[in-house]
From TrEMBL:
It holds the Pfam family Sigma70_r2. Residues 7-69 form the RNA polymerase sigma-70 region domain. It comes from Nonomuraea roseola. Keywords: Sigma factor, Transcription, Transcription regulation. Belongs to the sigma-70 factor family. ECF subfamily. NCBIfam families: PRK09636.1 (NF007214), SigX4 (TIGR02957). InterPro entries: ECF_Sigma-70_Domain, NTF2-like_dom_sf, RNA_pol_sigma-70_ECF, RNA_pol_sigma70_r2, RNA_pol_sigma70_r4_t2, RNA_pol_sigma_r2, RNA_pol_sigma_r3/r4-like, WH-like_DNA-bd_sf. This is RNA polymerase sigma-70 factor. Interacts transiently with the RNA polymerase catalytic core formed by RpoA, RpoB, RpoC and RpoZ (2 alpha, 1 beta, 1 beta' and 1 omega subunit) to form the RNA polymerase holoenzyme that can initiate transcription.
Amino acid sequence: MTRTEEFQELRPLLFAISYRILGSVSEAEDAVQETWLRYEGSPAEPRSPKAFLSATVSRISIDVLRSARVRREEYVGPWFPEPLLTDPYQDPERSAELADSVSMAALLLLERLSPLERAVFVLREVFAFSFRDIASAVERSEAACRQLAVQARRHMDEGRPRFEADRRERERLAMRFFDAMREGDVDGLQELLAADVHMVGDSGGKAPQLARPVIGVEKATRTLAAFIPMLARTGGVMELHEVNGQPGAIFRDRDGRVLNTWALDIVDGRIQTIRTVNNPDKLGHLGPVGDAWATLREVTEARRSAD
């Protein structure tokens, strides 16, 4: 097998590692490309292409994360990961770990870890790498990596999100939720939302966004019931789609351009958290991005006309 073939075979794994370390599709893709350039230019023949490439993409991702942390501290409003619609890496033996680690809630929890803790946790807990390979990847001793893993696991366990275990039940509930939104069904929405439901959005100051998070079933219901009917009057559409392994949707304008994504956290048969990503800089990998400000103006005009 040629180096090109080896790399292409491992590319989904490399992206999956990098995305979980970085929380960014675009940065993960760049890290994977940089990994290929280093692999292609390396004169040595690694004992294990998988170990070499995984180590390389991990080191690159750690370096990128260290510089990204500074930018995220200056970010306007809440920061969310770039939405991922489909995880390219699949491993039936690690399906639970892969699904749990890619959710918005889990990625936000990973933000609490240091870059080294995060990389060690991802490599060990999600992908089951040996401590020998992890030590090579992060350039620390095996003993240090074991300690980092313990620390990271403790931080993650303290805030680990709980989700509805039955995937079909999540999808059924999400379908009812989005149907109720589409119809402006207040009673239907109240039945599906947790009493302390949170609606939070990431716009980065570059797209319309709620002034502050919406907390509580009453406020959330009013906001949700008014949203879809008005968006529909402008020709906008809601496209149901899994987002970061959880039920969600992509909202598009009349020309099919992406306006934002929604991801739902469902716990104990109720929707606990609704996270929207509105920042156009985080949506480009999903296709052409619409002008959310222009859509908002149209929605506002539609509301005035209806009054």
